[in-house]
Amino acid sequence: MNIRFSGRELRDLAVAWVALGVAFTAFYFNRQLRLLLGGPVPSELLVVLGYGFVLSMLTAGIGFLLHELAHKVVAVHYGQLAEFRADYSMLFLAVMAGLAGFLFAAPGAVYHRGRITAREQGLIALAGPAVNVALVAVFAGVWIGGEAAGFGLLGTIGYLGVIINVLLAGFNMLPFGPLDGKKVMRWSRPVWAASAVPTIGGAIAFFLF
């Protein structure tokens, strides 16, 4: 399997990653950012926002982009021509939503073409949420390890990474519109149910508790 990235694709991935970092920083640190936009501020505030940007890039940015790259890897495995394309209007909307205090992100998608079966299409769709589930385990280890070692930054990265990837996995398994869940359900309802119950259930649990 030969995974290649065009210049445009690399640019779109970079722009999407940075834009998501800005959007989630605006959401996480909305009050501080409003102070910054309102006029002169102490340098400490810039440090806080820089800290927030790093957190966002390492949690939300990685969660979203690895989700999309998982689609690409599996699509290429099945002989598809696949590339990520950023949706610049949606990225702009994500930043504006963050500034307004809302959370919204649709950075783009992996588009692929070629002959494919319903099973292969379902597995390509399932790859994204599966990566988010794997990232939950990775970030949970970072969270627990950071807290145990007394490294606050690692603990915070792990905590936010767990939440974001739980929500990403659950949201994308909803069987509606262009979401992955609909493609998986179209292929196999039992596979969708086995995947959706823990992922959507986990997302609901985070919202409730």
Automatic annotation (TrEMBL):
InterPro entries xref list: Metallopeptidase_M50B
Domain of life: Archaea
Ranges annotated as spanning the membrane: 12-29, 49-67, 88-111, 123-144, 151-171, 191-208
Official protein name in the record: Metalloprotease
Alphabetically ordered keywords of this record: Hydrolase, Membrane, Metalloprotease, Protease, Transmembrane, Transmembrane helix
MF terms in GO: metallopeptidase activity
Keyword Phosphoprotein on entry: no
